[in-house]
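Appendix B. Extra example for self-study. Work through it before the problem class; the solution is given directly after the inputs so you can check yourself.
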Amino acid sequence: MTLSLPQRLKRELAATPLDGAVSAVLIVAITAAAIGFLGWAFGRAQWLVIQANGTLLAVGRYPVEQQWRLWLLVGLLAAATGLGWGLLRGRRWPFNDRLASVLLVALGLWAPAALGLSLPLQVRWWAITALLLGLRWAFGRWGAAGLARLHPRVRRLLPLGFPLLYLIGLWLIAGGLGLGSVAPSEWGGLLLTLLMASLAMLLSFPLGVLLALGRRSELPLLRWGSVLYIEFIRGAPLITLLFLGQNILGFLLPGGLAPDRVWRAAAVLTLFCAAYLAEAVRSGLAAVPRGQVEAARSLGLSVPQTLGAVVLPQALRTALPTMVGQFISLLQDTTLLSLIGLLDLLGMARSVMANPAYLGKNAEVYLTLAVLFWCCCAALGLGSRALERRLDTTRPA
Amino acid sequence: MVLMAPLNRLLLAAPLLLALVLGGCASEDGGNGVQSEKLNTIRSRGKLLCGVDGKLPGFSFVESDGRYSGLDVDICKAVAAAVVDDPGKIEYRNLNSSERFAALASGEIDLLSRNTTETLSRDSAGGNGLSFAPTTFFDGQGVMVPVASGVKSLKDLAGKPICVESGTTTELNLADRMREIKAAYTPLKFQTGDQTYTAYLGGRCVAVTSDRSQLAAKRTSFPDPKAHELLPEVLSKEPLTPATVNADPAWADAVRWTIFSLFQAEELGITKANIAAKLAEAKAKPNLADLRRFLGVEGDFGKQLGLPPDFVVKAVSAVGNYGEIFERNVGATSKLKLERGLNRQWSEGGLIYSPPFR
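Solution. Structure tokens for the complete assembly:
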């Protein structure tokens, strides 16, 4: 039975007099808070601090004349996104996709204007948005047919495009091989945050899997080594490890030989995340019934084959939500980099807030950071849920 | 497991690799009259590694266009101009207070220009083993009150609540001084600076205490900065001083005298704007011996320090004299609007004093 809107409202908000009273109080409180917030955000807040320092928050002190490389990278990422999105959905445009497209267009039109970017930069922004949605449309329409026409061997190589894209991204950011090199000390803002987080995620994943396997290994040395490592890392706060990484290496290796602070921080983040991932993967491994291994072995599969084809796929699927949770907290942990003096998003923001021209604009800056972090974490969460749905074998596809 | 064989080989190779790397590093020696490993390192590297705070209004922060700016930063620039002939060739390291000395000791940075108070234990070989340059900012703990409160001195604060950050020397200094003048007060302690100033602005206490430069910086962000004033009393001595490591006296001297040259330039009335004219004048008139020696037209001051002969010209052209640096970053023309106070030239009753360039 369907209820009319007033009926539904009555049932959900005011089924009993007490419910009605609680709802009324909450509605008044939420409205007051929202009015207060909006009044501040659109009235008293001075967003000039974000407009003037938008570039700093986005890429830090990256040299202006080299920033085209980052635009190119964003363009490549947008193209890859549009491509994958189109292949995934085909000709269908479900409600979520239409909503996302509208949001993207709105963002593409609003953000550059709100940031007060110059016309050439605005045009780049529009072009990137158009590229993303255009490829989404084109590959949704013809992508599947095009793929089918490719040689099977070529098709199997296609997933390699993503690690390749990552390497190209690193090359565009750092330079070298024909491009002017940009030292890591000049990376900053959102660029550094995302780079650190993504690098740590990518590298800690294989390491975490190896550690989890090591911890369940029958070789005592390997097992105890893994246990020791995991428990040591999990027993120390990340900030302590970051300080260790920054300070100890400088003493161990003579001046100039120690890798840049950015790489040291990335290594610590990776090692830290790997220990937690190892435990997540171990829980996944423990959830695979013993019979699976025995069945695989009795079918004549070797140990690596058993692991690769039977055990790990099931274990990783079980561990996926925990791992994504770990990744999300890793992304937020990157803010600790500001405490060791790196100019990640938070570090850059604190330097911006120390500019005498923008003193006291903390609320505006912190709110912007919160929104940026929320967007990144929401994207991770959405992606993982989509992945979970695709990997869920208990549901019909 | 199968994966282990290559891993084992890697583990075996790692110490070998480390030994190779360590062994391959031998110090070079420049052909300079002065033996300083640090100076040589900086020259061959082509840039100065300077440790700053990076988020301290007026002292070091990042401008909207990405350039570092502030009083501490200008000291870095002056030294870079003198040593590598380019105030832009600096790599800044943002350091927090707990890692700044380790960064200096391990050679991560060449120069620490980060509002560091010079103290005995930081200077001594048995302590942090730093070598302090001349103080570039004489700060001190101050007390800020609302003008409307009518409080004119510390004594007037007897029996009143004072906001203070807990666990800092600030808190202890306040307690000491209030005990000295036998004035009971109520300390309201907060964990962070933000909480402290929010409580003060919210009227929970009549006064707030911190370093005077900090109070002045914070005041500019208040809704009505003119409604607050600093009491005349200074509760502690905080000489904020650039530092290098003890181990390289020649490098420490180069930094010391580059900073002294900024003081001396102000005393002689040499500014960023007129230095070219002064240099031409010195070159034209052989009777101006003092000026000629100072600007490196004659004599070998630069060589004695392991610096170029005209290091003073380079430093002052880059950032101006000390007075200009002060005014630009924290003085009356800046947003912080700090009084020169103790940071005036000695001839005007301040503590800024350069020994003779002889």
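Self-check: Chain A touches chain B through 48 residues (CB under 8 Å). If your reasoning did not lead you there, revisit section 3.
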